[in-house]
Amino acid sequence: HGVCLNQRVDVMRRRSDPESEAIKWQTWDVVIKKQAETLEQLAIRRVEGTLRPEDLYVPTGIKRWDANGGVTRGVLTVFGGVDGQGKSFVANHLAQAASKCGLKVAQIVMEDPEVQVANRSIANQTGIDSRKLSLVTFDIMDMDKIYAASRETQGWGANIHYHSGLTNGDAILDSLGELAEKLLAQGEKLD
Q: Would you tell me how many other CB atoms lie within 10 Å of the CB of residue 126?
């Protein structure tokens, strides 16, 4: 009953506050005019040499993918596949590639525990087998590589806002909203 009551209160609040409407209607001519103006500004920046790939799309670090426009901004991108086919690898790679360009990333991992994801990342950076990291059977001399990976991550890793663990859709949306508000208060945003 509490959920229904909260939903009704939220609907009533939106009805009484026209600024909070979820849908903002505009005519198509306005949409096209705005896009023409945006394209003009981007073309000027391209000629000036100030246009970066990350201004247009989220770079993946994968040449063929980036040549086709990388990951489109504002579009939900979902990767699917059976176990062991590389979904986590691709997700981590995309998050790291975007963060290395200075973009802010939210990464929510619901399948693997944090330590396993961290070991995979260290393995990708160092070439040490992640199973050896998990079982602590790596060569003690590999600690130099592990700490080098940690130092390298300090630069771009602060751009990845990370959560690991099972949760539900409402909690994810609430958490993303809170993260977006926190970043906005700091003059930043999720890219």
A: 19
The region, left, alpha or beta by phi > 0 then psi within -120 to 50, assigned to residue 104 is: beta
Q: Which of 63, 61, 64, 38 is nearest to 51 (CA)?
A: 38
Are the CB atoms for 54 and 64 separated by under 8 Å? no
CA distance 170 to 23: 20
Q: Does the model's pTM come out above 0.90? A: no
Rounded Cα distance between 84 and 101, Å, is 28
Q: How far apart are CA 6 and CA 27, in angstroms?
A: 33
Q: What is the pLDDT of residues 154-182, one digit of tens each?
A: 999 999 999 888 788 888 888 888 998 99
Q: Is the dihedral of CA 17, 18, 19, 23 positive or negative?
A: positive
Give the contacts of 102 (CB within 8 A, at least 6 positions apart): 54, 159
**Among the listed residues 63, 66, 62, 38, the one whose alpha carbon sits nearest the alpha carbon of residue 53:** 66
Which two three-digit tokens encode residue 107? 């990464």
Strand partners, 102: none
Q: Which of 103, 99, 128, 117 is nearest to 163 (CA)?
A: 117
Percentage of residues in the chain with pLDDT exceeding 90? Answer: 50
